[in-house]
Amino acid sequence: MNQHAPTRKTFEARLRQIGEDRYHDKHPFHHLLHSGGCTPDQVQAWVINRYYYQSRIPMKDAAFMSRVSDPDLRRAWRSRIEDHDGRAPGEGGIARWLKLAEAVGLDPDYVASETGILPATRFAVDAYVRFVRDEPLLSAVAASLTELFAPKIHKDRIAGLLQHYDFANTESLSYFQNRLKEAPQDVAFGLNWVLDHAVTQADQNMAARALIFKTDVLWAQLDAIWLAYVEPARIPPGAWQPGEGLL
Fold this sequence. Notes:
It holds the Pfam family TENA_THI-4. This is Pyrroloquinoline-quinone synthase. It comes from Lutimaribacter marinistellae. With 247 residues, the protein is an all-alpha fold. The protein is 71% helix and 0% strand. The chain contains 11 helices and no strands. It has helices at residues 4-22, 28-34, 40-65, 71-85, 92-103, 108-112, 119-134, 137-143, 150-164, 174-197, 201-229. Helix 1 runs parallel beside helix 11 (201-229), helix 3 (40-65) packs antiparallel against helix 5 (92-103) and helix 5 (92-103) packs antiparallel against helix 10.
């Protein structure tokens, strides 16, 4: 036990360093958003495209659970689906994201239709769903560990949006407020599971690569928004055009 503990501690530090180096809180779009520098169109573009990611989270979790033979792991994991889908219509993280969409002036039905999603957003998010569906369970769980780094970005986002944007209030930002409560519970289980199951150097390398892949998925989504809607704005064919899908 004592000989194993330093290896476990070192591995956890390695995972946390990936977040320090690569998490998308360092992307210039988030700095622009949190500082109040985004235009209404840019905020709407972010809400529309991020919805696609939010909508696919319970789908990737369902794909993961379909591969798990351990009932204990399935029971622990299924709360993630309930967090996003809720237990009834109008509940859960996806419904709260649509409240944000309405607050920024978008028709929630338009956002939920997934019309106008940037191609790079779609490719990145779909790649994540396939990764969780097809890769080893250790990789699939390790990819979820970006939640280790989420509380800080949620706190920064809540503070920045409340300070700089008229649409921001307790109701419109309820998604982020709830994730401050939900994410730590999810990641505590996931982190311990990865630390328990990554018992060889090869395992640890595989888990680290999976976490890097997930940070790339998140970063790519923001790159897509920046290239399409910031400067120089180059909106690809078929993607959302400012003024579409408004209330």
